[in-house]
Design brief:
heterodimer; A: alpha+beta; 6 helices; 29% strand; disordered C terminus; B: alpha+beta; five-stranded antiparallel beta sheet; 7 helices; extended
Chain lengths: 275, 287
C-alpha cells in the first residue's frame, strides 16, 4: 500500500514527455506491481493494424490477452491467438459504441483521428473503454483520451454510470529562426470522474455518449485554464511582465477562458432533456 | 521490460538517479522520499546520492548564506560534491541537499584579477534584479585566465506552492568573455522556465532559449551597464515570447487537436445517431 502511494506520487511528478521510460523503470524496480502500474498509470495510446479490415485500432489493457491485442473491427487478435472474446450481447454493444464514437470523433477531432471502444463484463453490469487518439499532422502535437465507463444495471431502476476520463496531451512550439535556439512544450494529463443515473429507456449508447461528450468538453475547458492559464500565470508571478511596454497588459487566465465558457453553457442550456 | 529475476543493484541505482534527476524544481525532497521507499535499501540510495549535486546545480538551488541569497552552481563548485563558493559574500559553504541549508561557512578564495569587472557587474545586476523579480537568488563569478576575463552570471527565482498544487522556476545563465584590456565581449545566455501544476493531474511547462551578442566593455562600469542591458532585453523578449506562444497555442494549436464544439455549433444528437445506425444495420440485413 505504501508502495503504490509512492509510485503514484512519483509518476505525478515526472515530466510526461518521457513517460514510457519512467514507467518502464518503475516496473523494473517494482516487478510485483507490474499489473497495477500498467493499468493505473495512463500512457499515450499505441496503435496496431487490423490487416483483415485494413484499419488501425488502439491498443490498451482492455483489449489485450497476453502479448496480443483484439481489433474492434474484425474481433480478431493480432498477433493471432484464440484469446478472450466478449459474449455476443457485449460484442453487440461494443459494435454499436464503436460506430457512434466514430461519428463523435470525426465531429470533434477530425477524420485523421482514431477511436476504439472495448467492452467487458463487470459485476452487476458491464464496462467500456472509449479511446481516442489524435496527432496534428503539421505540428506533431498529440491528444489521447482514455474514457473508462462502468455501467451498473438494476431491475426496474435507472442504470448507474461511472466515468473516469484522462486526457493526455503534448503541445510544442517549434524552434524559431536560425540564430536563437528556443523550445517550448506544455504537456501532461488531467483526470476527472463523474457518476450519474440515467433511465435505461434512452439506451446505453445515448447515455454513454452524452456523458463522455460532456466530460471531454469540460476537461477541454479546464485544460485551457490550466495549460494556458495557470502555468503561464505562475511564470508571470516569478518574473514580472515588464510594465511600460508597447504591448497590452497580459489578460488573466479567467478572462481567457471566458469566451468558451459562455458559448458552451449557452449550448448546454438548449440540450434536449433525456426522455 | 520486467524479467523474471530482480534487476541488478547497479540498475536500481541507475533508475534511482534518473528519477531524482527529473524531479521538478521544488519537489526534490518528495521525489527522493518516493525513491527511498521504492528502493527499500538506504545503502543503494546513498550510492545514488551523487545525483543530488547534479540536480541542485542544474536548478541553481537558492540557499541562505549569512542572510544573502546564494546559489549552488557548477561554476561555484569547490569540490564537485557539496562545497560551493558564493562570490557575493566571498564565503565557501557546504550545501545540505535534503534540508536546503548552508553549513560550515568559511572564507573562500577570490580571483582578484577579475574583481573590478565582477563587482561592477554584480552591482549593476542587483538593480536590474530588484526591478524585475519579486525575489531572486543570484551569483556573479569572475576569473582571469591569462589575458581573458570570464564572468558568469546565474539568476534564479521560483515559486513553490504545493498547497495550491504548483511549483515553478525561472533561471538564466550568462557567460561574458573579453580581453583584460577591454573591447568587445562575447555574451552567451541560456534562459529556462519550468512550471509543474498537479491538481488532479500532471501538467508541465518546459521552455528554454539560448542567445548571444557582442557587447562593448571598455571599462568595468560601462561594460556592466551594457551586459545588464543585454540580459534585461533578452529576458524581457523571452518572457513576452512565451506569453505570445501561449496565445498562439490557445487560439490555434489547441483547436486543431480538438474543437470546442462540432462545426454544427451543437452537441452531438446521440438519439439521432443511434436511430441512424440501427436503421443502417436493418437496411444492410434486408438488402
Amino acid at each position: 500500500v505504501v508502495s503504490t502511494q509512492s509510485t503514484g506520487d512519483l509518476m505525478r511528478r515526472m515530466p510526461t514527455h518521457n513517460l514510457s521510460k519512467h514507467l518502464g523503470d518503475l516496473v523494473d524496480l517494482c516487478p510485483k506491481l507490474t499489473e497495477e502500474l500498467l493499468s493505473a498509470v495512463d500512457q499515450p495510446l499505441s496503435v496496431r493494424r487490423d490487416d483483415m479490415k485494413q484499419k488501425d485500432f488502439i491498443v490498451c489493457d482492455y483489449n489485450r490477452d497476453g502479448e496480443s491485442f483484439r481489433s474492434p473491427w474484425s474481433n480478431i487478435y493480432y498477433p493471432y491467438i484464440e484469446g478472450y472474446l466478449p459474449p455476443i450481447q457485449l460484442r453487440t454493444i461494443e459494435e454499436e459504441l464503436n460506430k457512434a464514437f466514430k461519428v463523435y470523433t470525426d465531429m470533434y477531432y477530425g477524420e485523421e483521428a482514431l477511436s476504439s471502444v472495448y467492452v467487458w463484463d463487470v459485476e452487476g453490469g458491464f464496462a467500456a473503454s472509449i479511446l481516442i487518439k489524435k496527432k496534428a499532422p503539421e505540428t506533431g502535437d498529440t491528444w489521447d483520451s482514455i474514457n473508462v465507463m462502468e455501467v451498473f444495471e438494476k431491475m426496474g431502476r435507472p442504470s448507474h454510470y461511472k466515468l473516469t476520463t484522462t486526457v493526455l496531451t503534448s503541445m510544442a512550439v517549434k524552434p524559431g529562426d536560425e540564430g536563437d535556439e528556443e523550445m517550448m512544450r506544455v504537456s501532461g494529463s488531467l483526470t476527472r470522474q463523474k457518476e450519474e443515473d440515467f433511465p435505461s429507456e434512452s439506451g446505453h449508447t445515448t447515455n454513454i455518449g452524452q456523458m463522455v461528450e460532456a466530460m471531454e468538453n469540460n476537461i477541454r475547458q479546464q485544460m485551457e485554464g490550466v495549460y494556458f492559464g495557470k502555468t503561464r500565470d505562475v511564470m508571470n508571478e516569478i518574473r514580472s511582465v515588464t510594465a511600460g511596454t508597447s504591448r497590452q497588459k497580459q489578460p488573466s487566465a479567467v478572462m481567457m477562458g471566458g469566451g468558451f465558457g459562455a458559448e458552451l453553457s449557452g449550448v448546454l442550456a438548449k440540450r434536449k432533456p433525456i426522455q | 521490460m520486467s524479467g523474471l529475476m530482480d534487476i541488478s543493484n547497479d540498475e536500481k541505482v541507475r533508475i534511482a538517479r534518473d528519477f531524482i534527476r527529473a524531479a521538478p524544481a521544488g519537489e526534490f525532497r518528495e521525489v527522493v522520499n518516493d525513491v527511498r521507499v521504492l528502493l527499500g535499501d538506504d545503502a543503494l540510495l546513498t550510492t545514488a546520492s551523487d545525483v543530488f549535486y547534479e540536480h541542485a546545480t542544474d536548478q541553481f538551488c537558492r540557499v541562505d548564506v549569512e542572510g544573502s541569497p546564494a546559489l549552488a552552481t557548477k561554476e561555484g563548485s569547490v569540490d564537485g560534491s557539496k562545497v560551493f563558493y558564493d562570490p557575493g559574500t566571498g564565503k565557501n559553504f557546504t550545501y545540505k541537499y535534503l534540508t536546503g541549508e548552508a553549513t560550515n561557512i568559511e572564507p573562500g578564495v577570490r580571483d582578484n584579477g577579475a574583481e573590478s569587472w565582477r563587482k561592477a557587474l554584480e552591482d549593476a545586476l542587483a538593480v536590474y534584479l530588484k526591478d524585475n523579480f519579486p525575489a531572486f537568488g543570484s551569483a556573479v563569478y569572475g576569473k582571469l585566465d591569462g589575458d581573458t576575463v570570464s564572468l558568469t552570471v546565474a539568476i534564479e527565482n521560483h515559486k513553490y506552492n504545493p498547497d495550491n498544487f504548483y511549483c515553478g522556476k525561472w533561471q538564466s545563465k550568462w557567460t561574458v568573455e573579453f580581453p583584460t584590456s577591454g573591447g568587445f565581449a562575447k555574451v552567451v545566455g541560456e534562459m529556462k522556465v519550468q512550471v509543474h501544476y498537479f491538481e488532479d493531474g500532471n501538467v508541465q511547462l518546459h521552455t528554454k532559449k539560448t542567445t548571444e551578442e557582442s557587447v562593448q566593455v571598455s571599462n568595468p562600469e560601462e561594460g556592466a551597464k551594457n551586459v545588464v542591458e543585454f540580459i534585461g532585453r533578452s529576458e524581457k523578449e523571452y518572457q513576452l515570447g512565451i506569453n505570445e506562444n501561449y496565445r498562439e497555442m490557445s487560439a490555434t494549436t489547441f483547436k486543431s487537436l480538438r474543437r470546442a464544439l462540432p462545426i454544427t455549433k451543437n452537441l452531438v444528437d446521440w438519439h439521432k445517431l443511434h436511430s441512424l445506425n440501427i436503421g443502417r444495420d436493418l437496411m444492410n440485413r434486408t438488402t
